[in-house]
Design brief:
Strand 8 (104-112) and strand 9 form a beta hairpin. 6% of the residues lie in helices and 43% in strands. It has helices at residues 134-137, 178-184, and strands spanning 12-17, 26-32, 42-48, 55-62, 72-75, 80-81, 86-94, 104-112, 120-123, 145-152, 159-166, 170-177.
């Protein structure tokens, strides 16, 4: 291991890289750290010719004013190519009052154009995945489901296996129907 330094213009979290080039370039979604009164946390895209030099950063999806992703937002799983577009699962945080320091982490989906990942086709209005099981509700940080990986099941191409952090204490896997997610997005 040799640390080569930062390759984004600022400190980042939640970087996910698209599984194939689009328009001859590598693409990613990331979330710059920090917010200001005039800039909300957002999922941002980036493009690169070589996976080292990143530019053309553009805001794609930012926190809502209220609701399930009003406190924080970030890319979760690398995008998955579907018949309707790129399907990316993301996490959102909602705080329930001034004493709530950690919030509740839930997951939703964003569908973007296959040729232009900056173009949003649909976003989950409600989360489709939230803490329900004991190990998701109780741990180092309570009430967390944090999707980080997604694999299409080879035996059933409609099944998306989603790997996720639960209560910041363990890693788990669950399965969702890709078609059901797309239908929930109106596709």
């Amino acid at each position: 291991y040799r640390r080569l330094g930062q390759i984004f213009p600022c400190e980042n979290k939640d970087v996910v890289i698209f599984p194939e080039k689009i328009g001859g370039k590598y693409w990613c979604y990331h979330r710059p750290v920090g917010r200001t009164n005039i800039r909300k946390l957002a999922i941002v895209s980036g493009q690169s010719p070589d996976l080292l030099h990143w530019g053309q950063h553009q805001h794609v999806l930012h926190c809502q004013n209220s609701g399930w992703y009003s406190g924080r937002i970030g890319a979760g799983t690398p995008p998955v190519r579907t018949r309707a577009g790129w399907l990316t699962l993301f996490h959102g945080v909602e705080y329930c009052g001034p004493k709530d320091k950690t919030g509740t982490y839930r997951a939703g989906a964003m569908l973007t154009d296959l040729n232009d990942p900056n173009q949003i086709l649909a976003v989950s209005q409600d989360p489709f995945f939230e803490p329900e099981l004991d190990f998701e509700k109780h741990g180092f940080v309570n009430n967390v489901v944090f999707p980080t990986g997604a694999i299409v099941d080879e035996e059933d191409p409609d099944t998306l296996l989603v790997y996720y952090g639960a209560a910041d204490s363990c890693v788990a896997v669950t399965a969702f129907s890709i078609e059901e997610i797309l239908q929930s997005l109106g596709h």
